[in-house]
Amino acid sequence: MNNAMNVRSMLSVILLSFALQVSAQPKLNVAGGTSLDLGTIYRGAQIERPVTLRNTGTDTLILGTIEASCGCTAAMVSDTRIPPGKTESLLIKFNSKNFTGPVHKTVTVNSNAAESPRTVIEFVANVIDEIGLTPQNFWFKDAQVGKSNAITIVLKNGGKDTLRVTSFRTSVPAFSLNIPSGPIAPGKTFEVVATFTPSAPIPIITDQVFLETTNPRQPTVAIPIYGNAKPQK
Fold it and tell me: Is residue 66 classed as helix, strand or coil in its secondary structure?
């Protein structure tokens, strides 16, 4: 009789211990849900959105790698360990400089959460470009050393107010740009001509030229500069 009671007691202790081990699990909850709407963004703006991560489980939640769907997005947390019942802030950053129109991106949080080891947080935005560029970069393919190489971009004022381009800056040597001396009316365009006169060969050109404007929503417009420079034939 005593032996049977002892066996039952031991089994109860084992089952209780197992139940406690099973129930002691971290759980990741994203406050407000896993879908974010960043709304309307003017091209070139860098948006930051904090997201609250809560551990609704009974064991410490350990955050692993955080994956962004593209280089335009970054995400970071200050602490990768979240005790039960506690929260941590995940900061999502989105750079809109290379986008126009609807945008959909994701951030994936890896963790030791038993039910959701990979939690996907998605966000959408609508990027408006009041200062349009056609094409959207300067591409100097096989530019000749010692020769002036010219490329034209059409700049359009898509806003409701008169636009002025006040100056430009770039670190590309021997690069010049004509900017409009007067205002550009809403809906009107201006041909921006870039002239590149390299003095030496350059294998790869990956840079930008920045236009300073009077548009309060897009005070700086970044135009990529790509290409290379070859010896003169």
Answer: strand
